[in-house]
Design brief:
The protein is of the alpha+beta class. It contains two helices and ten strands; from the N terminus they run H-E-E-H-E-E-E-E-E-E-E-E. The protein has helices at residues 3-10, 48-65; strands at residues 15-16, 34-37, 71-79, 85-88, 98-105, 118-121, 131-133, 140-144, 149-152, 159-167. The strands form two sheets. It has a six-stranded antiparallel beta sheet. Strands 4-9-6-7 form a four-stranded antiparallel beta sheet, with no helix packed on it. The chain is globular.
Length: 172
């Protein structure tokens, strides 16, 4: 983990992640990671270059895919040993503004034995076909929030990512 995120973690700045819009429901049998939301107006210096790259990606997606993406929101996610997130979509049923999920992994020296793989289930693929992504530092993954079912397999060591969503204007 990088030092700034580790300091936030040790200071107790992360909270139990919930599910659903507003994350009001705590369902540890579905998701048991911890998160810390980032304030776009007060980003840590180390995050600013990444935020700029995601914004450039947003502009290019709008130019080439006509998605109407307006903003980016993100949080750090820590999966302590034993943590997981069952299969899910990132777009909420009654809040369809999230369009593109973006994940940047921050874990140095990650191996398959460490667990915590991101498992992506391609749409309309048979259940036994999936793509696993090793959460190694510097790996960047993005996909449609409303179409790609994915999960985090149980982690055997602390797993850290910067996870966010490019979204359209909120309509609710």
């Amino acid at each position: 983990m990088i030092e700034a995120e580790l300091a936030l973690w040790e200071a107790g700045a992360f909270r139990q992640a919930g599910i659903g819009a507003g994350a009001a429901a705590m369902r540890p049998e579905i998701r048991n990671d911890r998160i810390h939301w980032l304030d776009a107006e007060a980003l840590p210096e180390a995050v600013k270059p990444y935020w700029s790259l995601v914004d450039a990606l947003r502009l290019e997606m709008n130019r080439s895919l006509y998605l109407g993406l307006r903003a980016f929101e993100a949080h750090y996610a820590i999966y302590p040993p034993g943590s997981f997130y069952k299969p899910h979509l990132d777009q909420f049923r009654h809040a369809p503004h999230r369009m593109i999920s973006c994940i940047l992994y921050l874990n140095r020296g990650w191996t398959p034995e460490d667990g915590g793989l991101l498992r992506i289930h391609p749409p309309d693929a048979p259940e036994h076909l999936f793509v696993d992504v090793l959460p190694e530092a510097g790996t960047f993954v993005c996909f449609r929030s409303d179409r790609i079912v994915h999960e985090v397999l149980p982690s055997r060591r602390e797993r850290l990512s910067l996870t966010g969503w490019l979204h359209r204007e909120k309509t609710m």
